[in-house]
Design a protein that fits this description.
6 helices, mainly alpha, 133 residues
Length: 133
């Protein structure tokens, strides 16, 4: 459509201004959506803001883990521990058992989620190992 209007014509200038406004609006909307998503994925207390791609990858892994926990007969901590030790079928935990997510699992406050681990868990060990690095 812009081919019919010469450069500098009022229509073309208005159209370009409208396109710029729409891009700004979309970018603002997308950025606020990513900011909201970042509040729902586990992060380290000291971690800088995750990039968009890292946020998406972490969210995909975390959603896969949560979906799996809903269908598991095990309590959440036991299920994750088995997955980390390789005691679950690989196809069952391959989406969530990523180094990005598993490193952050040790920082989750399970009590806030209604899960009370009854013993020293692998997460404590992971946390201690991360502290020594």
């Amino acid at each position: 459509a812009d081919d019919f209007y010469p450069s500098g014509s009022p229509y073309r200038v208005q159209r370009q201004a409208a396109n710029v406004r729409e891009r700004k609006r979309m970018l603002s909307s997308i950025n606020s959506a990513f900011d909201e998503l970042r509040t729902h994925v586990p992060t380290f207390p000291y971690e800088k803001r995750l990039s968009k791609i890292d946020t998406l990858r972490l969210a995909i892994a975390y959603i896969a883990l949560l979906r799996e926990l809903l269908t598991s007969d095990l309590d959440p901590v036991a299920h994750i521990e088995k997955g980390l030790r390789g005691e679950l079928p690989p196809e069952q935990c391959h989406l969530w058992n990523t180094s990005d997510l598993t490193a952050r699992l040790s920082w989750i406050n399970w009590e806030n989620l209604g899960v009370t681990p009854s013993r020293r868990s692998l997460f404590s060990t992971l946390s201690l190992a991360n502290d020594s690095l």
